[in-house]
């Protein structure tokens, strides 16, 4: 608990771990062009999501999940979020509504809105490699500030 605000805090990582209110994380997700990774420390399961605002309607956001090795292009469309509150899986999505990645996004959105995410779940926003400037999305790379390719050079 943050004594000054009386709200539960979570680790919401950028290049450095910074504790912020879940409402701030929700604001980040729906700012317009967010990329973030959700990690469950107990299971090791993680998913990277991209949430983009609709150009014609600022209340509508499109959600995609990273589905391949290229973290700039390999995203599969999942569905939409209306007014940052309710996720709707799209029938045209190549990812099924019962896929774990779709369920996790729906779950994490509900947790953000309720301002309560279990302690074993961490959220990391994307970072950039300090050497080459490419997008990094794995928690380990975000924490170190250097991508896996550059780290192995």
Helix/strand layout:
Elements: E1 9-13, E2 17-21, H1 22-29, E3 33-40, E4 46-53, E5 60-66, E6 75-82, E7 86-89, H2 100-114, E8 121-125, E9 127-128, E10 135-136, H3 139-144, H4 148-151
Parallel strand pairs: 1-8
Antiparallel strand pairs: 1-2, 3-4, 3-8, 4-5, 5-6, 6-7, 9-10
Characterise this structure:
- The protein has 153 residues and is an alpha+beta fold.
- The chain has four helices and ten strands.
- The strands form two sheets. An eight-stranded mixed sheet has the order 2-1-8-3-4-5-6-7. A two-stranded antiparallel ribbon has the order 9-10.
- The protein is globular.
- The termini are far apart.
Features:
153 residues, alpha+beta, two-stranded antiparallel sheet, 4 helices, 35% strand, disordered N terminus
In short:
This protein is α+β, with helices and mostly antiparallel strands and 153 residues long. Helix content is 22%, strand content 35%.
Average pLDDT confidence is 82
What structural class do helix, strand and pairing data support?
Answer: alpha+beta
Low-confidence stretches: 1-20
Count of runs of 4 or more consecutive helical residues: 4
**Helix-strand sequence:** EEHEEEEEHEEEHH
Strands in their spatial order, largest beta sheet: 2-1-8-3-4-5-6-7
Integer-rounded radius of gyration? 15 Å
Fraction of residues in H or I helices:
10-25%
**Inertia-based shape:** globular
Distance between the termini: 41 Å
Number of strands: 10
% residues in beta strands: 35-45%
Major sheet details: 8 strands, mixed
